[in-house]
Design brief:
Length: about 190
């Protein structure tokens, strides 16, 4: 059986959809009427409610992204180090370190901005966790909005992380940078 609302497959005889929590009325057969537990007034065929990604999902996605970006940056630095034949004690090592910081910054900025505004609407970490970034109407964000979202994260940092923690307490699970950029992070 397939849930008409979320598309998740569930077994015949199930009382609830494992994907979205819809309660089945009567027996689970092909023509059964399905109604949501949380909103009994919802009519079949109406759009499903938006499920927002909370703090912990976003945090795990962030850790995955940081690990991937760090790995790429370290790999390229080591590759350059051995390719150029630098000395460990040389002044060139300081230059390599500074170059790594600048390259890492640019890589992170482009990674988040381009992937969140792409057709995937998510970085690799967000994709792995099953969340994506949308505008407040649920549409794909533009590259300008993705750029604004990235730079607005500075405000979340300047509040000693409280801006990020807001994702766990606000109605639509928005962090401070989401409020500034007008974005949402949703499941799916």
């Amino acid at each position: 059986m397939i849930c008409h609302r979320c598309g998740k497959i569930f077994q015949e005889g199930s009382q609830f959809c494992p994907g979205c929590g819809l309660e089945l009325v009567g027996t689970a057969s092909q023509g059964d009427h399905i109604r949501p537990i949380s909103d009994p007034s919802m009519q079949p065929g109406s759009p499903p409610p938006v499920l927002y990604a909370g703090f912990w999902r976003r945090f795990v996605a962030f850790l995955i992204d940081r690990f991937l970006l760090g790995f790429v940056n370290v790999f390229l630095c080591i590759f350059y180090f051995f390719l150029s034949g630098m000395n460990w004690n040389s002044e060139e090592l300081l230059t390599l370190s500074l170059t790594s910081v600048v390259f890492g910054f640019l890589l992170k900025w482009l990674y988040f901005t381009l992937l969140e505004s792409s057709v995937f609407q998510a970085t690799l970490g967000k994709t792995f966790i099953g969340i994506r970034v949308t505008d407040e109407q649920g549409r794909r964000i533009s590259i300008l909005k993705a750029n604004a979202r990235y730079w607005a994260k500075i405000l979340s940092v300047l509040t000693l992380g409280v801006g990020f923690l807001m994702a766990g307490f606000t109605r639509r699970k928005q962090a401070l940078h989401d409020f500034v950029a007008g974005t949402l992070v949703v499941l799916g």
